[in-house]
Amino acid sequence: MPEFIEPIGKMLTSFLAAVAEFRADPDYPVPWFVDDVDPQALVDPAAFEAYTARLVDERNSSGVRPGFVPMTTLWWVNREQFLGRLAIRHRLTPALEMFGGHIGYDVRPGARRQGHATAMLAAALPIARSLGISQALVMCDKTNIASQRVIEANGGQLLDITAQKRRYWVPTTKF
């Protein structure tokens, strides 16, 4: 049964396989988090441990890099298989209000269309609530019908459609 775990070094092999899938996927752009992985972490287990520690530390204001906000990153796994990642941004900036939202998620290409994104978002909403987020701003590309369905299946109410995004408010309590 898939579940969230903290980013952890023991997932290196499966994480690297997922990164390769994301980069090889001709149907979607490479997610920002793939390009954000420390390059050395892709070849050195000790650097991968440091990368996962950085992700965990980004929850605290002291661990936030310039241009970022505190965020909780979780990995969706089934045993030893990395299936995807989700980030909950603890607060929004003007840029995040237009292009990122509170919650962002990515499912590795080989695990798509199996209900993982819907389950991930559902599992993340109580965590967002515990962070003081009563309604999460969640968005998808205007043409991403699969993500639109994921958000709506989790109670998303359309806020608006911009030139690039469909923006939704999603309650963090059961709807």
In a nutshell, what does this entry contain?
The chain has 175 residues and is of the alpha+beta class.
SSE pattern, N- to C-terminal:
EHHHEEHEHEHEE
The major beta sheet can be summarized as: 4 strands, antiparallel
Which class of secondary structure composition applies to the elements?
alpha+beta
Mean pLDDT: 95
List how many beta strands DSSP finds: 7
Percent helix = 25-40%
DSSP helical segment count? 6
Strand order of the largest sheet: 1-2-3-4
Shape: globular
Quaternary assembly? single chain
Given as residue ranges, the uncertain stretches (5+ residues, pLDDT < 50) are none
Percent in strands: 25-35%
| Radius of gyration of CA atoms, rounded to a whole number | 15 Å
The end-to-end distance, rounded to whole angstroms, is: 24 Å
Model description:
- The protein has 175 residues and is of the alpha+beta class.
- The chain is 35% helix and 25% strand.
- It has helices at residues 12-24, 32-36, 45-57, 94-99, 116-130, 145-153, and strands at 3-5, 71-78, 81-89, 103-107, 135-141, 157-161, 165-171.
- The strands form two sheets. It has a four-stranded antiparallel β-sheet, with helices on both faces. A three-stranded antiparallel β-sheet has the order 5-7-6.
- A hairpin with a 3-residue loop joins strand 6 and strand 7.
- It is globular and about 45 Å long.
- It starts with a strand and ends with a strand.
- The model has no long low-confidence stretch (mean pLDDT 95).
